[in-house]
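User: Hi! I'm a student and our assignment asks us to look at how structure tokens line up with a sequence. Could you show me two examples?

Assistant: Happy to help. In each example below, the sequence comes first and the structure tokens follow. Example one:
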Amino acid sequence: MAAGEKRTWEDDDKEEEEEHMVLVALSVIIDSDFLSKCENKCRILGIDTERPILQVDNYVFAGEYEDSLGTCVIFEENVEHVDAEGNNKTVLKYKCHTMKKLSMTRTLLTEKKEGEENIGGVKWLQIMDNNFSYRPNVTCKLST
């Protein structure tokens, strides 16, 4: 999964946009078809913080940015191509490469009790119900 971070600055009626591509590595996923089953819908909080939070379906992940070992090459999948036998064939098209990785670990949440204080620097964030990000299917290959 790859995530793009966009930032916009307005300066004298001039708008500038910056985009960063990072590889998102999800740990503790048991089902290999997990992302296709949830239709690539996700919610992400604090993408520009040190510890972003990601929700995919009923799973919540907490992560941190790190430099990858080698270069991550990100491709777009295209299944519209049909081979000679009439079967759909997946064609990969180069999208970009990055050396940044967002390692996400599954996190279990507990309900905050009334009057309970934050412990250990945990920041309470609210995830809105219909605030999804749709990402196209992407495949990443680690090359060294």
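Example two works the same way, sequence first and then tokens:
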Amino acid sequence: MSDTVYYTGSCYSCNPECESCSKMNLTKLVAKYRKPCEKIIGDCRWYSKHFDCCKKFLPLETEYGICYSFNSLHTTPSHIMKMNKSTGPGKLWMKAFEDVRLFFHAPEDVPFINTAPDQRADIMLGDSFNISIKVIEISNADEIKNLDVEKRGCKFPWENEGLLVHKHYSYSTCVVQCHAENHIKLCNCTHHLMPYYSKIMKNFWSPDPKNFLFPQFRLSYFNNIN
């Protein structure tokens, strides 16, 4: 059950044959056992001013399932908390009621399975954890935008063609889409926590209940992907 509800890239308990698996509603299982925002975090402050955590930490679909994201371009509505020379460095304080995993990333990025270890932290209940972030501004010469994407090896924010899983381009959203496309190519489905408000699922979706699950004889392919 834990491997299924809190899937993080490996499902060791999925290896044995499971006769009842095709009858399981994984969406309901995840909704039943995962806690909502208000039961995970509280007592949030920005510049020492209290605010309703769950009005700023909004649901974001990720490879881990629903995460609650602050200052993300991918959430709706997008609540961007700003800091500048006038306001000074931003200070965010919050309290967790459960063990949590934190991800630190740019507004256009998303948490994903291949996130570097220095960009995430596992915080146990009762622990105190401080994160300091230093911003380094990078500017590009105007001529770079005239280069083909293949030559420059990256995209500008307005170049969102071909994005099918998330709204905005970034390295992390590109990797998530690669994962989703390979899942579909190999198994004609993605795992149950993968975001699917995309054109991918519309093009490949089949009502067969087995498509909600990892077909047992194809598990080796997923190990290769991960």
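Here is something you could point out in your write-up. Residues 171-187 form the longest helix (17 residues).
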